[in-house]
Design a protein that fits this description.
The structure holds two protein chains of two kinds. By secondary structure, chain A is α/β, with parallel strands linked by helices. Chain A has helices at 22-32, 82-95, 112-117, 120-129, 144-151, 214-227, 251-257, and strands spanning 4-6, 52-59, 99-103, 133-134, 158-160, 164-165, 175-176, 178-183, 186-193, 210-211, 232-237, 263-265, 277-279, 287-290, 298-306, 312-321. In chain B, strand 9 (169-175) and strand 10 (178-179) form a beta hairpin. Chains A and B meet through helix 1, helix 2, helix 3, helix 4 and strand 15 of A and strand 1, strand 2 and helix 1 of B.
Chain lengths: 328, 254
């Protein structure tokens, strides 16, 4: 864990008010930011001013929370809500040209919306919000492979999983190991990783879907995606953030083992990371790990900038907490 | 409140090697977009509304009246007893043959039940998982070992059998008031999640490999059926799981 660095958090009063639309943002970016010095002795010069920004928005473990948590005095009362999240997402899209919207699994289970309607409303709302890609969490199998497949027509977005072998199941053709999105010539590869089924998902519920080693699958995915010209590789992980046993695959062991990944957007452990965790020696110079709790209470955001050569040049991680104080 | 984390790192894409490769600087991420508040998106609200309405009607059904609060406790709790009793009662109508005992897990009971009307909503909150009832066959000696595993966790929801917890061991284990006969076969109702590798009870996994009777009914539906048959249910403790070191009050607690 020695390469793990916690990067300081800056408050909202950081003097960033007044940055308007996409053009304004880029202008301010070039003018306001100090240029970092080159790493000593590395032979690399300072980064080129970024002229291209990709905004990656992400959720995980939304668990059928269509409505804000009820105002019952509970710890999460008033937080979340799909309709508020939709507005936030749309405002980000208005202000930025290139936006990806991703989910790291466990869309299903947790409220009677799922028990009664089988995930239909979850998928329909995510489609209306413009989700691009999601991976599968263990609870997405709660109605079995057949229950998931039956609901997939409502999902107007892609599913990726590189370590669930779905070839022998009804999910074949519905879930691919990875997908590639292109933004003005910048190719972004997105692959998924799922958690081991053992003790989590009954055999009858994941019938025909085989779990394989996530690290091996991640390396293969990175190889393919880099070979395919991707200058950014994102992993949607439902492995979990961290475990007591380092033998158990987690987002942190993954970041250590596969530095070719640029962003690991995690799930499963419902971890509210107040600061993204950064590993500093990846292929593009960084591997950023983030996770935004659960229940749609927070929308994660990682901005990645690219230089004139369309190579990733920097990143910023942030999170929007969605609560009733935001209501008009 | 708004910005959970906000940071900016420029990097020089140096290959792996010693020395700093990250420089932290302020992020030009725009948070002003939340300054005017976030009104719920009307189209998403409209999408959810009909589902919410249908849900509201179905979840408002009154199943029975609770004469008091049902809560979890160790070694025995009123909530554990209610759900385990419901399982053992209803399963007799569903299974091919007599079922002697029932076992569930504390972790599967998600919320307490307050006194007053018990609504369908509460059944879903208490038992949200899609777990199916299954009936396993255990030898008397397996049942005794299972009781020891229950003792390790300080008591679990059971019905039809009783035991005394003496540290990590269960003693005086009885089925229907009778001492266990190691040579007899007992039928135990539980849920597929626990039988098929969830939880920690290895004896259940052993028994699940033997011929078993899987019932196509959810534990939640069993609970709902049990309540619908009754006008009222009252919280009860009857010493089915008791602590060897004292009656009730000296028990494990929460």
């Amino acid at each position: 864990m020695k390469r793990r660095e916690f990067v300081r958090t800056l408050g909202r009063a950081g003097g960033i008010a007044g940055l308007g639309g996409a053009a304004g943002l880029l202008e301010a970016t070039a003018a306001d930011r100090p240029r970092p010095a080159a790493a000593p002795g590395s032979g690399y010069g300072p980064i080129i001013d970024d002229d291209f920004r990709l905004v990656v928005l992400h959720t995980n473990d939304t668990h059928s929370r269509m409505d804000p948590f009820p105002m019952d005095g509970g710890r999460f009362a008033g937080l979340g809500g799909a309709a508020r999240r939709a507005t936030l997402i749309r405002r980000v899209r208005e202000a930025n040209e290139h936006v990806l919207l991703l989910d790291s699994g466990d869309i299903f289970q947790g409220t009677p919306y799922f028990n009664f309607f089988g995930g239909e409303i979850e998928f329909r709302a995510m489609t209306a919000m413009g989700y691009d890609v999601a991976t599968l969490g263990n609870h997405d199998f709660d109605n079995g492979v057949d229950g998931l497949v039956a609901t997939l027509p409502e999902a107007g977005f892609e599913f990726v999983s590189a370590n669930y072998d779905v070839g022998g199941s009804a999910l074949a053709g519905h879930v691919e190991p990875w997908t590639v999105r292109e933004f003005d010539g910048v190719r972004v590869g997105i692959f998924g990783l799922g958690i081991a089924f053992e003790k989590l998902v009954l055999a009858s519920l994941h019938e025909g879907v085989r779990y394989t080693d996530p690290i091996t699958a991640a390396r293969a995915a990175c190889r393919e995606l880099r070979a395919g010209g991707c200058s950014l590789v994102i992993c949607l992980s439902h492995l979990g953030y961290e475990y007591r046993s380092s033998d158990r695959p987690s987002d942190l062991t993954l970041a250590e083992a596969v530095p070719e990944i640029d962003l690991i957007l995690g799930g499963h452990t419902h971890t509210f990371l107040d600061e993204a965790v950064v590993f500093g020696q990846g292929r593009t110079g960084f591997t950023v790990v983030n996770q935004v709790g659960w229940g749609g209470m927070r929308l994660g955001r990682v901005d990645v900038t690219f230089d004139g050569a369309r190579q990733a040049s920097g990143w910023a991680a942030a999170g929007y907490d969605i609560d009733d104080r935001l209501d008009v | 409140m708004l910005a959970a984390a906000l940071l900016w790192a420029g990097c020089d894409r140096a290959p792996a090697g010693p020395g700093p490769v990250l420089t932290v600087r302020e992020a030009p991420v725009d948070f002003t977009l939340m300054d005017d508040g976030i009104e719920p998106a009307a189209d998403i609200e409209a999408l959810i509304a009909p589902y919410r309405e249908r849900l509201g009607e179905q979840l408002a059904e009154v199943l029975a009246h609770a004469a008091g609060e049902f809560g979890k406790d160790e070694p025995e709790g009123t909530l554990e007893n209610l759900v385990a009793d419901a399982l053992l009662d209803v399963v007799q109508d569903l299974a091919a043959d007599t079922v002697h005992v029932a076992l569930l897990n504390d972790g599967g009971l998600r919320v307490p039940i307050a006194g007053g009307p018990i609504l369908m909503r509460h059944a879903y909150e208490l038992l949200p998982f899609e777990n199916y009832v299954t009936v396993l066959s255990l030898s008397g000696s397996q049942l005794e070992r299972l009781a020891d595993e229950i003792a390790l966790s300080g008591g679990e929801p059971i019905a039809g059998w009783t035991m005394e917890l003496d540290g990590d061991d269960a003693v005086d284990v009885r089925v229907g008031g009778q001492a266990i006969d190691p040579a007899l076969t007992y039928r135990l109702a539980t849920v597929d999640y626990l039988a098929d590798g969830g939880g920690t009870w290895t004896v259940l996994w052993e028994a699940a490999a033997q011929p078993r009777e899987d019932l196509d009914v959810l534990i939640r539906d069993v609970f709902v059926a049990y309540l619908r048959e009754r006008d009222a249910v009252a919280p009860t403790l009857d010493g089915r799981v008791r602590d060897a070191n004292g009656p009730g009050t000296e028990g494990g607690g929460e």
